[in-house]
Amino acid sequence: EVQLVQSGAEVKKPGESLKISCKGSGYSFTSYWIGWVRQMPGKGLEWMGIIYPGDSDTRYSPSFQGQVTISADKSISTAYLQWSSLKASDTAMYYCASGPVAGGGGYFDYWGQGTLVTVSS
Amino acid sequence: VIWMTQSPSLLSASTGDRVTISCRMSQGISSYLAWYQQKPGKAPELLIYAASTLQSGVPSRFSGSGSGTDFTLTISCLQSEDFATYYCQQYYSFPWTFGQGTKVEIK
User: Fold this and answer.
1) How many CB atoms lie within 10 A of CB A42?
2) Average of pLDDT values for A14-19?
3) Using CA atoms, how far apart are residues A113 and A5, in angstroms rounded to an integer?
């Protein structure tokens, strides 16, 4: 069974750093994209970026380039999303999701349960 | 960046209705489009990919059509469990993007 299990909810102060994780199991971690999607309270889905763990090829949305870093450790089948200096506007639910590369892939067929990040002074 | 216009943003319907949701692209994307359903407090779930291919396990009352710039998600006979928010997503070119969402509510 394919599973993406995300790290738990976080409460941080503005200016703090944070790294959240997404562990994949039940499939070949290095053969599928892992993406990150933001959902601010009461709002829609925003595509942040993706990584291909096989070669660490990473793509970002211009809206998030320079604001976050996406990485992966294929030895432990885990992807990460990190911030060096959080802002209150980073308060949101963050989902990881995976999808196929082959055959015109780019959609996400498996999703993590989400990690709620709250940034407040 | 490919801009997406999803409409309507809110759709009021009754059980048994046929509903359609539209997604229009700022440029052609062939058939590189997916549709997702999201229920409150839950992660999104994939319904359709490649514009019209039903994901395994998704009921056949869901269907997708279109190519190029105009796409449609149709629910042929709305069930109570279908009241949710629906999103389209293009994966033709980076950055991949989501539509703004359509909330399907009970009329």
Assistant:
1) 5
2) 98
3) 7
A111 → closest Cβ in B44, B99, B100: B44
Q: What is the mean pLDDT of each run of 10 residues along chain B (107 residues)?
A: 96 97 97 97 97 97 98 97 97 95 95
CA distance B43 to chain A (A): 6
pLDDT at residue number B96: 95
Helix (H, G, I), strand (E, B) or coil at B90: strand
What is the helix (H) or strand (E) element at residue B7, kind and residue range? strand B4-7
Element (H, E) at B58: none
B98: nearest CB among A46, A59, A105: A46
Give CA–CA dist B37/B21, Å, rounded.
Answer: 12
The DSSP annotation for chain A comes to: --EEEEPPPEEE-TT--EEEEEEEESS-GGGEEEEEEEE-TT--EEEEEEEETTTTEEEE-TTTBTTBEEEEEGGGTEEEEEESS--GGG-EEEEEEEEE-TTT--S--EE---EEEEE--
Name the pLDDT band for A102 (thresholds 50, 70, 90): confident
Contact B44, B35 (CB under 8 A): no
- Report in angstroms the alpha-carbon separations of A8 from A13, A20, A94, A113, B88: 17, 8, 11, 10, 28
Long-range contacts of B55-64 (CB under 8 A, 24+ apart): B55/A109, B62/B35, B64/B33, B64/B35
